[in-house]
Amino acid sequence: MDKSASFINRVFNLRSGELVRGLPLFGYYLLVITFYMMARVARDAIFLDSFNREQLPYADMSVAIVAAFILAPYIRAGYKVSLRNLQMGSLLFFALNLVAFWWGFHFHKWTGLAAAFYVWVGVCGILMVGQVWTLANFVWTTREAKRLFAILGSCGIVGGIAGGFLAKWIAERAGTDATLLFMSAFLVFSAVLIWIICKQEQMGGSATGPADARETPRNLMESFRIVRQSPHLLAIAALILLSSVVTSVARWQLKTIAKDTLVQKDMIAAYLGAVAGYTGIVSLIAQLLITSKLLRRFGIGVALLVLPLSLTAGSLTVLIWGTLWAAAVLRGSDGVFRYSIDTSAVQLLYLPVPANIKVQVKSFIDTVVWKFGDGLAAVTLLIFATKLHLTPQRISLVSLVLLALWITAALAARRQYIATLKANIQHVRIRPQQVLVPVLDQFTTKVVAEKLNSPDANEVIYALTLFEMGQQLHAHLAIRKLLVHPSPHVRKKAVSILNAAEDLSVKHQIVTMIRDNDLDVRAEALRYLSRHDDMDPLNYIDRLGDFADFSIRSATISFLMRPGEAQNLEAGRMILDGMIGDLENETLAVRAANSIALLGDMAIGALQDHLANPNEGLRIRKQIPEILFQIGTPRAAGALAENLVQAEAELRFKVISALNRLCEARGNLPVDRQLIESAMVAEMMGHYRSYQLLATANGEADERMEQSMREELERIFRLMKLLFLSLDLQNAYFGIQSKDPVTHANALEFLDNTLSAQLRARLVPLIDSEVSFQERVRLADRFLGFSVQA
């Protein structure tokens, strides 16, 4: 048993204990699909024995109408009782219904009962299948589901095979009516398995009730409203609707051609059962060989396209040949991929849906929307088959148009799935010191401008800081008025912002401010004039007296490096090197950094040289990335990118962080992707190397080692953010670190569906909490090409 479980774990990439934990749910789904396949075979044979094929669309339309009435009390019950009691109660009720149907068919042979049974199977069958996936959505996270859904789907396929051949065997020996008693027994056993599952998962009689009564839909209309307001649920509903219409048309084509060819009830039942059984065998092979690998390698987007593309090929087959075998190929295309790849992919779409609304909205979509699709298919068939007299062969033209819409809906569903995963991990709190305020919009700018008129100088300073943090590229009129503010702090700040904004309209005012009573204001005015006026700053100093040392030096550098007759690059560089050296002095560092940043691009060459120099003092080098960020030009970004690879870990983080914030603030800066990719590969290799070193200590990391590995991972995510600016990788990183298993799984799933296959293969094992330490060490040995011995 242990060897068998170990083999299955390797084949399906399962974690220890997952197979045993999933056995009751696997058995539950197998029994439900066995019931549903037998029920469909029986209902079609019984209906076609009492009615002609032209009445099939009316029966399907009745199913759609009745589904809405059945689901309304079901949703109300879901609000009041637990998921366990709801599912067990409904299964036992439906089992009694089957006994009643058998009694009616066997002893009375009422014609109207055949129509009622057709509608009953259409509504209750799809509802019970949906119940299995709803329960699976509650007990498994997105990562567990991605592995276990493949096995769950396999069990459904085995159930389909068993149901098809069992229906054929019973119909040939005891008649079609006898299948109903077997189906009733399957539902009773399924109710027992639900009780076992809920006990195993510690889901008591009320444990699965609504998480928040105020937000849980209580009736059909509230469920419809929630679906309509959610782009994600709306995309799922569109996908389900189109899937229902197309497959209903395909079923009709098979049944009508079979009726014309075979005629007799038990022969039809046996044939349909055989088609279902053999289709199930092929589907099981596809499930075992393809589904899990397809989802793991290509994600949900490709998986959602497999079924509509296969049905497109099947529809073309019917359109060309129009025979019974062609209709079986079309129906087989649906059977092979629906219960293997497509079901697993569609059910994954529901995983990010909040638990407190999942039962109701999933029931609404899986039943009302699905059966509404059956109704639309019935209307389509009435128009094209009954009124326009298209043959089953020519109906494929209509199916091809619907399949094009289905493919479009699948692509939209994939986009919304990723967007919902992204939204689900955004509630993780971001560290404020690592977040840059975005560019202020027009409304926010107006509000901040009003604060600039506050009599409180502290409020004015705060508002001015928001302008700076907001990366304003132009100065606001209200800031110019602050040049005459009573507070010297406000006047200084205003001059600084106007200088950075290159606002030349206030130059004549700034000239008068070099006579200001406050030394800091005079220094800030000198910086402005040295940058935007042609006069040598030393002339101002000679005429007007004292200025702060850094303002003199920065103004002099600006003057000496400006093109013209007075240009002296060597002298300017000497003064600039001296200012950079002052970064090592704790009391001078802040003023020196601010003064250097005001020089803009002319300071970048010297800053880059000092940053890249391994002999330079580490204290100085650690402050340079922030200065380059304050400069904020494309040249500054280039200087940071060229220094991403540093021997000292803290310095690497400061360089990466500064480049992160700069790219977020300035948008599409021309940063060399090759430099970033090289740095990221180096960081990944370093992280894998840490696992090798950890293995030599038997996996026991001290606090310093744990901190170092956390920092390695954060640097990897920050570098990825530079490559994929449009992705929300910062929230994904904090989601990965979350202790909440659902948030952690959602973050992993988001990365799985957004990163390239090569990057995903290297990164995800490092952050997936379900990947064991030993597995990571083995991956490290493989990626690095060598192992480390203790």
Condensed summary:
With 790 residues, the chain is mainly α. The protein contains 33 helices and no strands.
Give short descriptive properties of this protein.
790 residues, mainly alpha
Question: What do these coordinates show?
Answer:
The chain is mainly alpha-helical. The chain is built from 33 helices and no strands. Helix 9 runs antiparallel to helix 13. It is elongated and about 110 Å long. It starts with a helix and ends in a 6-residue tail after the last helix. 48% of the residues are buried. About 3% of the residues have low confidence.
Assembly of the depicted chains: single chain
Per DSSP, what share of the residues sits in E-state strands of 2 or more residues?
A: under 5%
Radius of gyration: 35 Å
Shape verdict? elongated
Mean of the pLDDT scores? 79
Low-pLDDT runs of 5+ residues are 205-214, 428-444
**Strand element count:** 0
Q: Briefly note the structural class of the backbone.
A: mainly alpha
**Biggest sheet layout:** none
- End-to-end separation in angstroms reads 34 Å
Can you give the helix content as a percent range?
over 70%
Number of helix segments? 33
